[in-house]
Amino acid sequence: MDAFTKLTGIAAPMPMANVDTDKIIPGRFLKTIKRTGLGVHLFDALRYDAEGKEREEFVLNREPYRRAEILIAHENFGCGSSREHAPWALLDFGIRCVIAPDFADIFHTNTFKNGILPIKLSREICDQLMEDAKLGENARITVDLEAQVVVRPNGEEIPFEIDPFRKHLLLNGLDDIGQTLQHAPRIDSYEAVQKTEKSWMPGISV
Amino acid sequence: MNATKKRTLFDKVWDAHVVERLPDGTCVLYIDRHLVHEVTSPQAFEGLRLAGRKVRRPDATIAVADHNIPTMGRANGIEEEDSRIQVETLERNVAEFGVPYFPILSPQQGIVHIIGPEQGISLPGTTIVCGDSHTSTHGALGALAFGIGTSEVEHVLATQTLLQRPAKNMLVRVDGVLRPGVTAKDIVLAIIGKIGTAGGTGHVIEFGGSAIRALDMAGRMTVCNMSIEAGARAGMIAPDETTFAYVTGRPYAPKGEALEKALAWWKSLPSDEGAVYDTTVVLDAAEIVPMVTWGTNPEAVVPINGVVPDPAVEADEGRRVQLARMVEYMGLSVGQKMTDLAIDVVFIGSCTNGRIEDIRAAAGIAKGRKVAPGVRAMVVPGSGIVRDLAEVEGIDKMLIEAGFEWREPGCSMCLGMNPDKLTPGQRCASTSNRNFEGRQGPGGRTHLVSPAMAAAAAIAGHLIDPREFT
Ligand code: SF4
Hints:
Chain A is α/β, with parallel strands linked by helices.
C-alpha cells in the first residue's frame, strides 16, 4: 500500500448522497481476480450511456476532473456491498481522498486499507469545498494528513479528525497484517485458552 | 472490564473475543468462523502467496462458490469465461491453502449466508466474518457476524483476527403481534423505512421484542440479513429455545456433551436486564403491513396500499433531487398506486429469502394458480439442501406447474453477476435485499418484497397485497 502524506490536487464535485458501491462499481465488473484495471468502470452507469459512450454531463468525463485526485460528495458515501472493488476502482482512476459528511462503515475501512484517505467534514463545509471544486483547474485543494487539515484554494485551513492508529498506518504505508502479527504471541495464548473453554466448537473439515 | 456492568448481547460476544485491547481502543478481535466465496477472495489469497503466508486456521474456514455461478445446466460447467476463472481460482486456492470447500455440484453448495446456519457452521456466541456485507444474516443465531472487504479477508486468513473498534449498541424492539399475512421481510423493510439507510451506521442492532421472538429462524435471518441495509455493522438476535432447536443436529454443530457445554454458555448471552443501548427504536408490530420499495434504496419503501411519494415535499434540496431521480429511474409517476405497477420479472431467492420457509410461502400462493402472461418468474433456492427438500416436499412441482422456473442454487439475479439479469427498463418484484440502480442488471427496476408478495405479483401480473390470495 502506498503511504499517504500530503496531496494537492483537483477535486471533483459529486453532490450526491447515498452513493452506493453498486454505483461506484457495478456487480458485473467484480469478476476479476486482480485489484487493478477497474478504473475504466468507475461509476460505470453514470459515466457511460447504453452504447458505452461517455456522458458529457458526468463530472469525471470533463476536464480537468478527468485528473481528479480528490472526490467531494454528500452523506453516506459507499453504502451497500462490502466489495473492495469500490476503493480499487477509485484508486485505479487516481482518487486518493474522498471528502464527505459521513461514510458507510465497511467502505470506510476498505479505503484505508488501500491508501485512500476518507475525510469526514460537516455538510456545510463539504458544500463549501464543493463550490471550490467547481472552479476546476483554478482551485487546487490540499490535504495534509500529518497536520490533519484540508486547505481550501483561498488558504483557509479546515481541521479534520482521524483515528490515530489509522493515521499512523496511512502515513507510513503500513500493512495491517504486519501490525497484527506483532501480537502473534497473544493470539497463540488466546487460542490455547479457547481450546479448553470452547472445546465444544468443532473444527470444520469436509 | 467491570464485572458488574450490565452488558448487551453484543458486548458479551465482543468481550469474549478480544485478544488484545490496544492503547487507542482498537481491539484485536478473534474470529471463530470465516466464510469465503469466489468474488472477494482471489486477491486475498494472492496477497498471502506474495507475502509467503499461510491460512492460520483452515479448520475455522469454509469456502463455497455462489455469486456468479449459473443456476441452469451447471453440470456442463460455467460458460462465462471470467466467472469460470473466478471459480477455478477459488478451487485452486482452497486446494493450495488447505481450506475446506463445498464443491459446486455438492448438495451443501449454496449461498454462503444460507449454508453457514444450515450446516451448523454458524453458531450462537461466535464471531463470523465473510467478504460480503450480508454476513449480518448469521446474527440471527446470536452471533456477531459482519461483512468485511478483501484486505480484511486476507487479514483473517493470515491471523484469524481483525483490528476493530467496538460498535455502539442499538436496540430495535418490535412489540406486539404481527397481523396475519405480514412477514419478517415486511418487518425489516418497515424498520429501514423508519430509521433510514444510514440509521444504523456505527451500531450493531439487536432486534428484540415479542414480534421478533415469535419469528422462526428463517424469519430472524431475513431481518438480520437486511441490517446492513440500515447501515448497521451487524444485526443480532438473542439466542433462545427457537435458536437451540434450530442448531441441534446440524452437521457441524456440537453434539452430546459438547452441546451441553455450549448451551450453558449460549444461555448466558442474552442482554442483561437493564443493559444500556446508545439508541433505541420501537415499532408496533400490529401497525406493520406488507411493504414494497418504490425507489432505488431500501428506505424508499411504502406499504403495498401506498403510492409513489412526491419528492417536492422534501425540504432538503439534495434529497429532493435524489428522490426525483428515483421516480424517473424507476419509471414512475408521483401519486401512482403501487398496486398499479405491472411486473415483468419475479425473482424469489437470495440470502434474504432463499430458505425453504420462503419457498413454501411462495408455493402456498402459487399452488393451483398460473403466472400471468408475459411475466417471467423464477425461484432460485438458497442451497442444494433447500432445493432437495423442496423437491421432496413436491413444492418445486407446484411452482413449475404454476409457470415458475425452478433453478439451481446461487445468488443469481440478486446481483446479476451470472446470466440471470434484468434488461433495461424491466420491472422486477424481487425478494432480495438491494434495489440500487442497475443492481439486477443495467437499467433494471427492482421492487423489494416478501416471498408471498413476489409470488402474488407473478400471478396477478402487478404488485399486489398477498393477503388477497389467502
Ligand atoms: S444473495 Fe445477493 S446479497 Fe446475498 S450474498 Fe448473494 S449477492 Fe450477496
